[in-house]
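Our platform keeps sequence and structure together, in a single record for each protein. Such a record has a labelled line for the sequence and another for the backbone structure tokens. Nothing more is needed to write down the fold, since each code stands for a local backbone conformation. For reference, a complete record is included directly beneath this paragraph:
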Amino acid sequence: MKNQNLLLFIFLFITVLGYSQLKPVKYKDGEQTLNGFQSIPKKTNKDKPGILILPAWMGIDQLSKTNAQRLSDLGYYTFVADIYGEGNYPTDMNGAAAQSSFYKKNFEQYQNRIRLALQELIKSGANPDKIVVIGYCFGGTGAIETVRGNLPVKGVVSFHGGLGKASDRITKNSDTKVLVCHGADDPYESQEEIKAFQNEMRESKADWQMIYYANAVHSFTNPEAGNDNSKGAAYNEKADKRSWEHLLVFLKEIL
């Protein structure tokens, strides 16, 4: 418990200090105003790799901002996407469930919001040929939708994201590499849905991998999720650290 409190303190401390590099960016989807965040690395390599971050169902949060800053400090251009748009931000779980469900059902609109955020990442200086999309929970679903929509990215990473889709949707062959970081005890993903997702990846001939983390449930990367696995969503320090290392290996491989 002491270690978790210390990690939460560090998480918040880095968040507060790190925001000096994160800059708010207004952009548009038609008449809808969107409010994202970008970070341009102080030091980068000649390839100028970029990472688009898709937040969880409450919208842009501390986790997405903090990790955008951490990745920028490693030399990546980063952009945190606003999926819901100004005036549509949920204030509670019921609102978040309604908003995220809308975009899961209307997946083409979700894919379009991701596409617009990718354009902003490229505008900031990222190389359009060196981009990875990562997402958490609802954003993890968005990372997978990036593959399903054949958006032009090198790879995607889903952290405890929803994997399901309608059975009549066909995923075309894809060159995009896929990494799924999944809590072994996540109660929100059925074995049937996992199996269907894995078959989808095989049929689309994707280069994919799925890593399970023991004793981890939903939201295992988020220190603010508490530590009670019985609630179905909880932080897991070991799974968080391991999945971060797996992300870095994945980025090094393809970028």
